[in-house]
Amino acid sequence: AASLFLSVLMCGLCYGPLDPSMTRIEVEFALRDLPASVLVLSDGLASVSVALAEMAAKSLGVKVMKLRASTDTAGLFTLHGASGPASDPSAPMTAGYSGEMPELVTRSRDEVGLALHTSGSTRRPKLVPLTHANLCSGSICIASTLQVGPSDVVMNCLPLFHIHGLIVNVPLPPHGKGRT
User: Fold this and answer.
1) Cα separations (Å) of 168 from 27, 64, 141, 164?
2) Which of 58, 57, 1 shows the shortest CA–CA distance to 30?
3) Measured distance CA(57)–CA(51) in Å, rounded
4) Does residue 88 register a pLDDT over 80?
5) Residues of the chain with pLDDT > 70: what percent?
6) CA atoms of 7 and 178, how far apart (whole Å)
7) Domain boundaries in the chain?
């Protein structure tokens, strides 16, 4: 999830993580509210929540992609099966990739990079959009406050659908030049 989050940001897209314990109705609400165009699920993870999320996405016409983690290298992954309804879900998404490094995508600091829902304790969950500027300044301030350096190791104990787990612990090592 951490590698996917950083990859989505680097591509100039918006990341909207979901709690894996959500019901199908909650997933449908979140996908509609975002509005999501793609749902990425971990490949090989057979659970009721994954099946419910996939059914919710398909009922809304949201494409479903499967993330396959590398068995050799931490953080590397391939995405499979989002070219459309007739696509081969086992084929990696390499169509059109020449092996060359793609052009760097630049985004305005005011563009939304992360969209999270509140817990919904006062009624329905509300969408909270965070810009690239929000994400960068928050992690830079925390890295500075904690004085994270190259010899430090940062361990994340929070779920990667939680705001603190994502916007503090994931970008903290790169901004503080620490290790994960």
Assistant:
1) 25, 28, 10, 5
2) 57
3) 10
4) no
5) 82
6) 19
7) 2-176
CA dihedral of residues 78, 83, 87, 90 (deg, nearest 10): 0
Nearest alpha carbon to residue 174 among 152, 161, 17, 13: 152
Q: Strand ranges (DSSP E) for 19-105? A: 38-42, 63-69, 77-80
Domain 2-176 annotated CATH 3.40.50.12780: yes
Residue 169 and residue 142: Cα distance in Å, rounded? 9
Query: What does the DSSP assignment read for 82-135?
Result: -S-TTS-TTSBS-TT--SSPPPPP---TTSEEEEEE---TTSS--EEEEEHHHH
Give the residues across from 68 on adjacent strands: 78
Structure tokens of 92? 């990696």
11-51 pLDDT, tens digit per residue, is 888 999 999 889 999 999 999 999 999 999 988 776 788 88
Dist CA 66 CA 15 (whole Å): 15
58's CB contacts (< 8 A; 6+ apart) are: 64
Residue 88 Cα distances to 22, 48, 168, angstroms: 28, 23, 37
Do residues 29 and 125 touch, judged by C-beta distance below 8 A? yes
Distance CA 22, CA 56 (A): 11
**What is the pTM assigned to this prediction?**
0.78
Structural tokens at position 34:
């975002």
